[in-house]
Amino acid sequence: MTIEGSFEAKPGQFYMLRGIGSFMTLSRPISVFDVEADKIAFMYRVVGEGTKYFSKLKEGDEITLYGPYGNGYPVSDYKDKKVALIGGGMGIAPLFYLAKQLDNAEIHLGLNSRDLTAEQKQYLGQLYATHAPTTIHIDTDMSEKLDFSKYDAVMTCGPEIMMYKLTKKHENVYVSLEKYMGCAVGACLSCTCDVAGKRVKVCKDGPVFKGSEVSYDDAIKLL
Ligand SMILES: Cc1cc2nc3c(=O)[nH]c(=O)nc-3n(C[C@H](O)[C@H](O)[C@H](O)COP(=O)(O)OP(=O)(O)OC[C@H]3O[C@@H](n4cnc5c(N)ncnc54)[C@H](O)[C@@H]3O)c2cc1C
Ligand code: FES
């Protein structure tokens, strides 16, 4: 979804999107996919009523958005360093704009064989490759497949179990957490979780955290 206007955002930040008027009581958090001089783009998957509403919008329709929110990935620390960008499922969304701002990134897109057609996967691969060398991994545990020793850092977004496993493979892993969000400004407490032994708000303190500081309680239960 592309929205015309003048926007500024850092890779890994997100906007809160909702329909015009009263539809959708709460806005939905969606990562910045790309920003250009006169527009911003979002990439989303239809999972519930909010994203279904977005999918029915037509060219010229209006939408309400607030943001950008959150901290974003540490781009300036790794601008010219070798960085692996690893996305799983819809977690690939923030990596496009991230790769655009890094000089020496390598992109790894982890996709599920059931989710997309071969043409769609090929399209995604070509799209991301405009910013950095891109490999698509189908139904693959990327934590077992990649050689992490060649990277200065790993920046990732996707299922928590994937990010938990990646955190074990490298010292400098930065993860973007996904939680249900009501306000995005730290007021409703719907997005709290444990990081570095403290209760934090993913919307305000994150969504990007040092992977080694995150408590992956839910992910560990799945192992
Ligand atoms: C920082 C951030 C960035 C994000 N970026 C993107 C992005 O770029 N693209 C994208 O597609 N998505 C993104 N998401 C996820 C997206 O915001 C959610 O999937 C959102 O809930 C979709 O809204 P919806 O109304 O379509 O679905 P919802 O109605 O919110 O439902 C989504 C799914 O979650 C289940 N669900 C709903 N509420 C709960 C609950 N309280 N507990 C457990 N399960 C529940 C529903 O049954 C359904 O399966 C992001 C989330 C965060 C926090
Ligand atoms: S979404 Fe309300 S505190 Fe984070």
From TrEMBL:
Keyword Transcription regulation found: no
SUPFAM superfamilies linked: Ferredoxin reductase-like, C-terminal NADP-linked domain, Riboflavin synthase domain-like
GO terms of biological process kind: pyrimidine nucleotide biosynthetic process
Binding locations of [2Fe-2S] cluster: C183, C188, C191, C203
Cofactor(s) listed: FAD; [2Fe-2S] cluster
Cofactor note: Binds 1 FAD per subunit. Binds 1 [2Fe-2S] cluster per subunit.
Pfam families referenced in this protein's UniProt entry, alphabetically: DHODB_Fe-S_bind
Residues of the FAD-binding FR-type domain: 1-75
GO molecular function ontology, one term from the record: oxidoreductase activity
NCBIfam families reported in the protein's UniProt record: PRK00054.1-3
UniProt-recorded name of the protein: Dihydroorotate dehydrogenase (Electron transfer subunit)
Protein species of origin: Acetoanaerobium sticklandii (strain ATCC 12662 / DSM 519 / JCM 1433 / CCUG 9281 / NCIMB 10654 / HF)
Gene: pyrK
